[in-house]
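Write out the 3D structure for:
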Amino acid sequence: MAARLSSAAAAAEAFLARAGFDRGPWLAVALASGIAAWFALPSPAWWVAAMAAGVIAALGALAAWRGEGGRVQLVAAGVSLGLLFAAGVGLIWLRSDMVGAPPLTRPLSAELTGRVLERIEQPAEDRVRLVLAARDPASDTPMRVRVNVPLAADDPRLAEGAVVRLRARLMPPAPPMLPGSYDFARAAWFEGLAATGSVQGPVELVAAGEGGSWLAGLQRRLSAHVRAQLGGSSGAIAAAFASGDRGAIAPADEEAMRDSGLTHLLSISGLHVSAVVALAYFVALRLLALWPWLALRVRLPLLAALAGATAGVAYTLLTGAEVPTVRSCIGAVLVLIALALGREPLSLRMVAVAAALVLLLWPEALAGPSFQMSFAAVVAIVALHESGPVRAFLAPREEGWLAWGARRFAMLLVAGLVIELALMPIVLFHFHRAGLYGALANVVAIPLVTFVSMPLIALALLLDLAGAGAPAWWLAGRSLDLLIAIAHFTAAQPGAVKLMPHMGGATFALFVAGGLWVALWRGRARLLGFAPIALAAGLLLTTPVPDLLVSGDGRQVGITGEGRLLVLREVRSEFTRDNLLQLAGAEGEPVALADWPGARCGRDACVVTLRRAGRDWKVLLTLSRDYIEIGALARACAAVDIVVSDRRLPRTCTPRWLKADARMLRETGGLAIGLASRRVQTVKRPGDAHPWLLPPG
């Protein structure tokens, strides 16, 4: 056994020695793994244990080095990875304690006086959002809240810095409705929001503000100017490209872009920042080359890189400096530095440095789809173009322009497919849906946006300084109309969207681990990464659809497996409807349970029999809060397997298997129930002490 271990250690040492600088990106992976461990582990005791495990691993590697001097690479890897893992756990824990804000203890309607910290215009939703610094009406402690103001009650003077008085209906940030749903409570915790709500009545301006930062005002004026030049959907998307303001994009267009795999084009990230930086770099390089005196005395790529970096930073600040934009700006600046120094501009090491910098500033970004999707796409592109076969395929050779263009077009198709495959597990994990034709749509849409729409918008804004931008705006509008048409056409195709049940955390971790292994190593060793990917794909394809979905308040119940999604109550909220359909993997409008022939519904309850795994399951679902005679309720409960209720049921109600009443749901949150496996997934795990899940007060 000792001989085998020694041989394995020697092989690992040789492998790491050959890898050279390819080991670098794994340092960022270790930091990210520590952050992910904090989110995955339930309580401070586990977090301390994780940090201790990282430190012990580092010390163990040092101890092994003292006894085995030839294992330098293994020791260095063990020490660095162990310490960075521990640092990741500590970093996100510290960040959570620094920025988190305890939520309201309960919903309330109250009068608030507060200062406007941020104004978010959303004309497509017929509202303006105000983030206020106010005081908790119950405890008189400072708090940060976000309220929706209808456009009819809006006043342009309600800008950053203004003091306002209003009455609002406030709610604590909502936890996930169902297992796998969006966790707004977690997002609100890291944004420092104690509550969200809607204004009731007029908003009184107590004191005018200074309008916030000049940058925020410039962003709003730029967005309004663009929409004034271009109306409709094309103007809304042009405003998003120019200023980062997506508030005017119609919901139908947002949905079409999402279902066609083009929604990433609406978020200012790598594509947009790269286009701005590249345009500034090449324009500066060409213009500076026209000055012979300067060209003979100064390295022009250095000055052009400075111009590109300035343009990239300015665009990042102008569009709101969101995490994907900052990540892209950091990456673009690193590329410019490499170009200025004459080094390889695109590498996985550069991507790893950008990821590490973003995680150091915003470690919570790791848990969000934006960070994951943007870095997955960039890693996939760089890894693909660094691979030997692709380098050989794209190598310069004597050929005609037709063959040259055909090879580039083929590479564009392959890159689109690889990006789509890299993003699919992330999209399925967070959104439970995937666009099947996204790769083909992106082949047309990405060049259209990069080489046509964005340059035309920039040209139009430049010409507007002289009042001559109308022709450029017209061309930009036509290009954006084409983009929108591509999105709607792709999304309307049969089978364009595939809905899947919630992917488990372990399955997602296998996808990520396998994908990173394939992307970050070279040679045959990277093929080992396909093993966890194949295992994850098998687990995903065999993931059963839950038979019952129960919301955290017990009012919404979805039943699957009957050809359509059956719902207990009418679903008026689009958010609730989408959650039920996505997690059920169902399409089409939900059907009321009372209209289904297999259910017996009265004024107070519904009883339904479901045939699963060769046996009948009887489910009792309460509808009203009216008094029910205790003896009758006890007999009804005893005759069924499962009871679901939004009310607190007496102890005499004892079904054969599961009683999910208000008392239980308060402890578990929403449920996903599998009858054949008798498995119950919950939103809240026992003992989970993440601060946004702790009971308020």
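The chain has five domains: 2-99, 108-212, 219-499, 505-541, 548-693.
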